[in-house]
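Quick start: what a row looks like.
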Amino acid sequence: MPRTVTGAGRVSVLPLLHTWPDQYGVLAYTTSGAFGDTAIVGYVPIVEIPDVPLMDIAARHEPSRLYSSAGGNGVAEACWLMCVGWSGRLIRKPGTLELADAAWSLEVDGTTELGKTIYGHDRLTVGRITLGDPDLMAQARAVLPASAQVTASA
């Protein structure tokens, strides 16, 4: 049984184009712990879309070119994912869902200790995120671009 972490607070939900030109998923970014020391980045499960392997997607973007790999295995990928969530919150594009206070739970795929504070976080935990309110969950799934919904069901 996978480990689950729970929390409540601000959640940013955004579409993630993970495979060019048309494979999308929906990503949620939030924090946990004292002063948000843990970044939480989860993919929102959508029936028609396969689960999104976030660390693999990050690795395909060659994040070590930006973040180096001196921090150890997975640190550059963790930094890339945190940047996607953090910058998606700061500079919202149309269609991004910003929830001021939402309960959430995350089925954990993994946690990466960063060794230093990056984007205000000391670690990243990734996995499959579910919002506690079914209406908010429906809104989160609706962030998926319409073109991706057509592609996914075709």
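That is the whole record. Residues 75-90 form the longest helix (16 residues). Strands lie at 4-19, 23-32, 38-43, 97-118, 121-131.
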